[in-house]
Amino acid sequence: MQRTFRVIVSTLFLLFSLLLSPFSHASDREKVLVFAASSMTTALDQIAQAYQKQTERTVVLSYASSSALARQLAYGAPADIYVSANEKWMNYAVDQAVVDTNTLSPWVSNALVVVSARDDISQVNLDDASFLHAIGNARMAIADPTHVPAGIYAKESLENLQLWPVLANKLAYSNSVRAALALVERKEAPIGIVYRSDAIASKAVHVVADVPDASHAPIIFPKAMTKDASEAAAQFFDFLSSDDAHRILAEQGFNVVSSSPSDQELSK
């Protein structure tokens, strides 16, 4: 009798679990997972908070270097939206057939600046003597130029400004631009090259030099939905082009490039 009762209970529990599983899956799909370049952290956090306040829908944000995120998508990571800090890694995601090119468009632009957290460094001129004086016996922080967009832009600028041969051995590489910023904030590096938006987001650093836009390729952040994105993701994706989102982006130092998906594929 007891055995029969246990069998009945087990069977009912299994049926109950099976009945609940579709609802659990649906709940998971209502959550939007965004893969975004680390430099988007402050702005995208605020945008997601505004969206969640208006809709009561959950947005999960995952930040890392654009290259790491693009590779994770290629390996099958289940993100809904991808925001890259350059066109190269978005094009990689396109080549890997993981993003919906119908949703792909440039979103915002940015600029490079030199920052410091030290009170005795208020200005750095764009010449080797001024950089070497500021760096001293330490190193200048930049994102890794072998794969991180901010580092790629920084190296291109230093090369075009004829500074790379002098500074190449005076650099400390980080795996993301926010990691490079952290080195400067902690004064482990006297100066560093980061995005303008990073300088605005940080209360610990100040800008000591503006890097000329003409010294590097345009800094464009494209966005796209993945091919497996949910309907909930489409709604948040649209919110990224809203007036509220644009206001936050402007406050954080970004310039809006496009308010709607118009470009089917970025130039390669």
From TrEMBL:
Keywords (A to Z) from UniProt: Metal-binding, Molybdenum, Signal
Superkingdom field: Bacteria
InterPro entries linked: ModA, ModA/WtpA
Single GO term (MF): tungstate binding
A Gene Ontology term for the protein's cellular component: outer membrane-bounded periplasmic space
Signal peptide: 1-26
Similarity-based family: Belongs to the bacterial solute-binding protein ModA family.
UniProt name for this protein: Molybdate ABC transporter substrate-binding protein
